[in-house]
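Annex B.
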Amino acid sequence: MVLNINWQAIDLVMFDMDGTLLDLAFDNLFWQQAVPQAWAALHQHPFDHALELLKPQFKAQEGTLNWYSLPYWSNALNLDLTTLKIQYQDHICLRPHALQLLHDLKMANKKLWLVTNAHPIVLNVKMQKTGIAHWFDHLISSHDLGFAKEQELFWHKLAAQYPFDKKRTIFVDDSEPVLQAAQHYGIQHVYGIVQPDSKLPARQQLKFPAIDQLNELSSSLLSIQVEE
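GMP/IMP nucleotidase: predicted structure tokens.
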């Protein structure tokens, strides 16, 4: 995919974390296998039965801040999910070209924000593992603002605490409900991700322009005269 971006009109690039800069395979492994296995062992259930029992609990919180809250699920499931997350951290990895993209954008003097629904505990684990925190001007968790990115109030809270020009901003996220909320708020340049999880097939018929490889986003930067 060739992205036609007028980079001279862009000051800020906001990135989601999981499924955008990081491979979503880790999160799917954690929530679909590691957590049900731990819960099944706790209650002495077969794995498949535990998974069926957990699905309605997960579904009921989908799209809310609780859905993304490690402390919420630790309490709800009576599991130490922080320790479990750390035990599985070797599965955390960046998507291809992520580091090069961050480098290229910084060299082009763009501001970079990481804007994630991940709980601060998870954000810290993943920044420690990947070492990418230093690229960003701000690391922003929706839990600090009180609303998930799917919710309109998140964007108003974000702009109040971290003012930005939504007309001169690019936002990249693998979640289409999040992209829809961002676009509704007024961010004009929004992009999805074709294949957030490297273990799953590429998605089809997405509603928003979507990036396959992250270097597609920075390829058009080559024509920019980088300021000294």
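The chain has ten helices and six strands. Residues 25-43 form the longest helix (19 residues). Further annotation is deferred to the next reporting cycle.
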